[in-house]
Amino acid sequence: FTAVRYPYLKRGNYSFLSDRHLGFFQSILSPHQVLTDEINDLSGYNVDWMHSVRGSSRLVLRPKTTEEVGAILQYCNAQNIAVCPQGGNTGLVGGSVPVFDEVIMSLGLMDAVISVDELSGIAIVQAGCVLEKLETILHLNNLTLPLDLGAKGSCQIGGNVATNAGGIRLLRYGNLHGSVLGLTAVLANGQIMDCLSTNKKDNTGYDLKQLFIGSEGTLGVVTQVALHCPSKPTSVQVGFFGINSFDNVLETLRLSKQNLGEILSSCELIDQSSLECVTSQLKLKSPDLVNHFPFYILLETSGSNADHDAEKLNSLLEMLLKNGTIVDGTIAVDSTQATNLWTLRERIAEALASEGYVYKYDVSVPIRQFYQLVDVMRARLEKLPIRCCGYGHLGDGNLHLNITSQEYSSELLNKIEPFVYDWVSRQRGSVSAEHGLGLKKRDYIEYTKSPTSVHWMRRMKKLFDPNNILNPYKIFPGTLNE
Ligand code: FAD
Ligand code: MLT
Ligand code: ZN
Fold first, then answer.
1. Domain with CATH 3.30.70.2190 in the chain
2. pTM for the whole thing?
3. For residue range 236-278, what is the model confidence (pLDDT) as tens digits?
4. Do residues 214 and 160 make contact, with C-beta atoms less than 8 angstroms apart?
5. Distance between Cα 20 and ligand 3 center (Å)
6. Which one of 167, 204, 309, 346 is separated from 153 by 20 to 30 angstroms, measured CA to CA?
7. 235-348 placed in CATH 3.30.70.2190
8. Measured in Å, how far apart are the chain's first and last C-alpha atoms?
9. Predicted-complex ipTM score
10. 174 C-alpha to center of ligand 1: Å?
């Protein structure tokens, strides 16, 4: 185990991988489903997207069916082998990679789109299907995804469900607790739990599928998902506004909601520092606005009548300019321009990562306090970091506070944490709005959840996974084996 940032972690009392174990896996899977070459095969699976957490697994298993997942977990549970489920490995909290030598279960070969029904809007998909691939198929059926995020080219629907991913359309379609109609999950003991309902309404007892949404691979491995998908909008428009104060950002949000109503599908904030980072690091062109502004809002509408939607967005722009809420604004004239504007928002994470070490915070805060935390941190950190910036899902009250430095510095970290969590907690916000807790945020769960809630979460974990083989060291502080 090489990640020096977590020296306090102790390996659980799990079995070490033996030739006998390997022999079993090789007997139930084909050779290309069992990867053991540490340098050529395993290195990418052992390190996270941020390159901040590294495990030392010696085995990646790539099941193709729910039954294979069941057989693997049944064996691991009986043999006391720890398992780390992995989707597209785009998670941002160190949840998708092993901490020690957990066996990695990669869902990448389970990528079939099983069925898509335009009339009901229901798609049934294997968990390892990459989000962008699913979107392409849905578009052919006049449907679209209820979620969208910058990682769509690599992340998988199962990983999205396991993290309850939010993203840039949540404002319009809500989160996966609403869009997932059913799922199949394999429990730690190998039992297959079939909750693959396609009913929109089903009040027969507890809604167990909800437990797996956002459980980050700690309660079961999701193998199939039934997703409710909205109709593909035939008219999508994107506006980009330059704004000179945060009060006016809030006013823009209020007026956009009021005037765009049902067609508003995204309202994202980008501050000046984030825009500067994405344009300079990735050599992208800034939008054609008269000036630089402390804040930018990217607005998207999705509807079914281009004339009607354009009229609404244009009159909003006119009104905002006239009453001085925004100083300048542009509306994309075609899909290329729209994509270029979205790129400026969606590639901020990548741009920040290319700048050096990133201290990444993903918080929910009351909307009026949305940007205060960035100002507070800038004043607190002074010249220590390269940059301290804020962007995110304004319409959902979800701020991404990011701080970068040339390399990891414990001095900087100690100035940020736990201060940042304490600040969020005092606003009764959430220390992880959409990325989950994984390994990196697990020690801060109680800044958002009450001790009683955490106690009952631990009891649920014990019930579903008594031997704690599924993604140990994640979500909960300490070890569950203690
Ligand atoms: P992984 O990273 O592989 O895994 C994430 C967690 O889920 C791990 O704990 C893993 O053990 C578990 N897991 C994965 N698959 C399964 C399964 N089938 N069954 C059980 N457990 C499983 N997140 C947002 O919410 N909103 C955003 O806008 C957003 N944008 C992003 C942009 C970029 C550029 C990047 C790199 C990440 C972004 N994320 C965002 C983070 C987000 O969590 C992931 O992109 C995505 O949801 C994870 O999917 P994945 O398939 O990569 O899962
Ligand atoms: C985003 O909204 O861009 C993602 O959640 C990634 C990030 O927080 O940087
Ligand atoms: Zn986000």
1. 235-348
2. 0.97
3. 999 999 999 999 999 999 999 999 999 999 999 999 999 999 9
4. no
5. 43
6. 309
7. yes
8. 21
9. 0.99
10. 17
